[in-house]
Amino acid sequence: MNTNSQLSISAIKSPKLSDKQRKEILDVCSRAYEEDFSPYLALLDNATHLIAYLGTELVSHAAWVPRELRLQGKCPLHTAYVEAVATLPEHQCKGYGSTVLAAIPPLIWEFDIAALSPSEAPYYAKLGWVLWKGPLAYLHNAQEIETPDEEVMVYRLPKTPQELDINAKLVTDWRPGEIW
Length: 180
What we know:
The chain is of the alpha+beta class.
């Protein structure tokens, strides 16, 4: 049964979230990830949150933050980096997370590309995300540090360069918490 038409989805920048919405996002993410999500939520202070309600209950969430990704010898890519994709456990496998993810691309048209670190690559691949095949690294204190155990997926947007080579090295800047 497809109940996605019952979802009410809103995009809200972090500073405009109410205390109630912050608590609801924290609850959804903590329950979905089975850990206290507070430290991660604190890192999303410049994010745009996409929140999905089923009636009055927040059931699914995703956010994006602006980041810069670089390919050697190319201009930096202004990236919408998707974070905290979560659906309440009792509402998983109903298409709510997929509906939220599908709502993101039309909202991020000003970015060059979207990217994320997948927990389950096949899930995101079904939604049009492509696994980055080239090496990954980050810059910290002017030193490039490779991250061979990480995975990143990208989603092409209207401004994505046609010649984007997913086999090239992809580099970002260090950040607290999870690099990718």
